[in-house]
Automatic annotation (TrEMBL):
UniProt keyword list: Cell membrane, Membrane, Transmembrane, Transmembrane helix
Lineage: unclassified sequences, metagenomes, ecological metagenomes
Transmembrane recorded as keyword: yes
Domain Cytochrome b561 bacterial/Ni-hydrogenase: 11-190
Identification of the protein by name: Ni,Fe-hydrogenase I cytochrome b subunit
TM annotation in the entry: 14-32, 44-62, 105-128, 156-175, 205-223
Length: 224
């Protein structure tokens, strides 16, 4: 695919990339530990995932340009227009230059995934097991029945979350196999074939440290 006036430029900062892959890892640990009733692993992986989501929400406000929600979140109508004009083959322009960051459909995928992960974690904080002997760190603040309801919804929302993940992976595969556009490398090394004007600037590391510290503090207070 030919691209005019483009070259490999930085598009994803280190916090976005590292956070993305740590979420993948910790989600896998949460799934494995939940299936095998390894609740200590499940709990600590959940705490880690909680911290990552909190940081991502913070970074979506103060991070580099492509990390900010204001840069990529658009209306549902814009997402449908993008699907009609850029995904369906008859309307796809192979010479159209790449843009940095998420496209309108990818943006809604990010919002849905973050939302359901946060919901999953929130439910887990209040959930209790059938015997009532083990539960999330906030389960003492709710009744047994409420804790059990949280546990049941926790399982249901996990199925929805898994569906969203499958759709996310399928979309990446579609771009790779049909559009000949591999999206994965950019989330590893942080660069994509875009115009220089689309490149992100240096990562503001002081903001990273502040966000990481605040997220860790919140998780520590809840888990204590």
């Amino acid at each position: 695919m030919s691209q005019n006036n483009t070259s490999l430029q930085p598009v994803w900062d280190i916090p976005v990339r590292l956070g993305h892959w740590l979420m993948v890892l910790l989600f896998a640990v949460c799934w494995w530990s939940g299936e095998n009733h390894e609740m200590t692993w499940h709990r600590y992986a959940g705490y880690g995932l909680f911290g990552l989501v909190l940081f991502r929400l913070y970074w979506g406000v103060v991070g580099t340009r492509t990390a900010r929600f204001s840069n990529f979140v658009s209306s549902p109508k814009a997402a449908l227009t993008y699907a009609r004009n850029h995904i369906f083959k008859s309307n796809y322009d192979e010479n159209r230059p790449n843009k940095a960051g998420h496209n309108p459909l990818g943006a809604w995928s990010v919002i849905a995934l973050l939302g359901f992960i946060l919901l999953q974690i929130g439910l887990g904080l209040f959930a209790v097991d059938v015997d009532g002997f083990d539960g999330g760190p906030l389960s003492d603040f709710v009744s047994y029945d409420t804790g059990r309801l949280c546990a049941e919804i926790h399982e249901i929302s996990f199925s929805i979350l898994m569906t969203l993940i499958v759709v996310h992976i399928a979309a990446i595969a579609y771009y790779k196999l049909v559009r000949k556009q591999n999206l994965v490398p950019a989330m590893i090394h942080g660069k994509a074939n875009i115009s220089q004007s689309e490149a992100i600037k240096a990562t503001p590391w002081l903001r990273v440290l502040i966000g990481a510290a605040v997220a860790a503090l919140i998780v520590w207070i809840i888990a204590k």
